[in-house]
Amino acid sequence: MDLKEESVSIFRQRRGVAVEYSSAQLKGYGEAVQSLKLYRRAELRDTAHDAPIIEQLYVDPLQNDAVLETMLRPNTTFLIGRKGTGKSTVFQRAQHEIRKKNRTISAYIDIKTVFESAVVDNDVSQKISAISSAVTESDLKRILLYRSFTRSVFIDIQKELKSQISNSLLDKIFGKKDHNNKRIAAIEAIDQLLEGAFEAEVTDVTGFSAATIKKNTSGKSITSSKASAEAKFSTGPAGIPSGDLQFATGLDDSTELGFGDSKEFSQILIKTFNINRIMERLEAVLSGIGIRHLYIFLDDFSELPIDAMSILVDSILAPLNNWSNELIKFKVAAYPGRIYLGKIDATKIDEIYLDTYRLYGSSDVSSMETKAVDFTFRLLDSRFSYFLDTGFDAFCDTDPHEVYRQLFFASMGNPRILGHLLHNLGETHVGYGRRIGPRAIQDAAARYYEEKVEPFFGIQKFAHESFAERSSIFSLKELLESIVSQARKLRDYKGSAVTKEISGRTPSSHFHIVSEFESILSTLELNFFISKYYEMKDRDGRKVSVFALNYGLCYRYSIAFGRPTALREHRLYFVERIFDYTTILRKYLQKNQEIKCDACGEVQSLDKLESLKLFDMLCPACKKGTCSVSNLSRKYEAIIKDINSELLLPNTELGILETLYPETTGLAAADIAGELDCSYQLVGKRGKIMAERGLVEREKNAKNRRIFLITQKAREEYFDQNADRKLSVPD
Q1: Statement to judge: residues 369 and 501 lie in one domain
Q2: Most CB within 10 Å of its CB: which of 14, 383, 492, 663?
Q3: What CATH number does residue 698 fall under?
Q4: Model pTM?
Q5: β-strands 510-514, 706-710: how paired?
Q6: What residue ranges in 363-431 does DSSP mark as E strands?
Q7: Would residue 719 count as lying in a domain?
Q8: Residues near 262 by beta carbon (within 8 Å), at least 6 away in sequence
Q9: Please, how many CA atoms are within 13 Å of residue 144, restricted to the half-sphere of its CB?
Q10: Which tens digits make up the pLDDT trace of 530-587?
Q11: Could you give the number of structural domains in the chain?
């Protein structure tokens, strides 16, 4: 008997036998699970010593730390993955490594939080509106918002730079001699550049607007202004700085104001902020203390509204990426399909995808699954070996490899989902001395699906979006129901040479479509109803994309997950013709969408969409108008229109309600933020507004910590009798 057979034999002997885990084991299990559930910038720290442990716990999705090494290259990099794929963990690990380097510094910006915190000064808005009726208050509010947003970004960069310089950097470069003088001079220079000089560079919007409308009234351009801040600076032998630092700021540009689309606003910001000059001065300060690279980590990029995303790219990312003389490189965390590059040269950036197929799908399905299961093992082994004396195997009641395999299927290699699954297993099994096996994982996955995934459609009908956008979401629910219904029909299919050899139910969890239709499923994938699994050629030689239904969804609706593996031909199981759902998507498009010109009204057939995209959707009939895809779904029109408009809420508020709904004791802002992948400050701010509307209660718990509870009013209005929280799938 070899080692693997002996291992399997041992685990079979203990299956079903209750185990008395020690308090240390249970504590270690809980800490390991919590480390997987951490969100965004929640730092991995040793609670006993309050020290960072990111280096010990980090597990790279690829061998030889390939993802980390790519992040550390002096290139602008987009790190792309769904929520929970570990983007922020990669950020933490990269910044931890950067802090060891003498010539590189980093700054972290939570773009979504900065955007949410940008406020428009109503007094200034009204003052500018009084200058001229040609400038509407709406236009002015947009300019003020973008100005405030951009200013907040620079201030956060300044804070990060000050913190990193004062904490460790100059120790490495200068040693102990003159440490304080160098540190003080550098921090003061950055203070003056990003605070004092920043205000000189950024034109006051009130005067700016007035000068644009009444250009010759004052006899000089409003954007002619100068500011200076000095500290002496000289260079010693070998270019090493000595003495004090000095720099001067100045601005002597004229700028015209125009109103229109976001591109025009971006041009205003570029001229007004004069970003290249600010960055040149920042480069002078940083190079003076030996820094050659500034990596700016931008989190939550895809959480921005599309107009704000384009403003950010056109006003800040593209100019700095192009003008910084290799000083600044951005590291951007984004969702698949929600990326705007603007004038950033796509050929000069790195892209790293963290979802399973893009990481491991370069050869065949079996190799992809093997690599993904290996990552699941490495991740759990790292966490449990650190927090416990024994590894995760101690909690398994069957062959550990099979447990890892099932955990991969249930999580699709998503660390945060894996943490939620293990949390559920801790409550139902580990806490009661029961070991974890495949059936337990199925139950945990079904619970996760029912609590975290399936309610998406029910809450989205209250989203503060246009009718067309909400209608589009509901039409996707109809599409998903069609896909699930078809998968259930195929459970008993035995009509092919492959399926007739399968005993029991036919696995029907995966389906394929022609790759051109893949974008239709992006919202369903982003919200974890499905996951892209692989790309292959089907039986007819077409390129197709293979998708897997959510593992918990499959268990909930009695759909066998996976594929047979005994025979070589089973590698092509997912492209059996019975799993071709292209027809389902075609019918969905024909029923729910049309392509129509906004000028002549000509309707184009849906099969022309890809060719229209090549010509920027220019109408082929009139050659003037622009074609657009509109949603025609009418099935849910009555449901959407019957909703009281006063109940509509932004997605953040809806997420807060959804998170609080199953809770009976209330949650703190940080706990809610962990579920929503946002900052606790944002939750606190929105929670206060929701309390004023009677949707949540704000109380103090026994530890005098602020917690939020959902009110009975909110339960009745948003959740009770809400049938759309479940799929409508016939038995």
Answers
A1: no
A2: 383
A3: 1.10.10.10
A4: 0.82
A5: unpaired
A6: none
A7: yes
A8: 307, 310, 311, 314
A9: 22
A10: 999 999 998 889 999 999 999 999 999 999 999 998 877 788 899 999 999 999 999 8
A11: 4
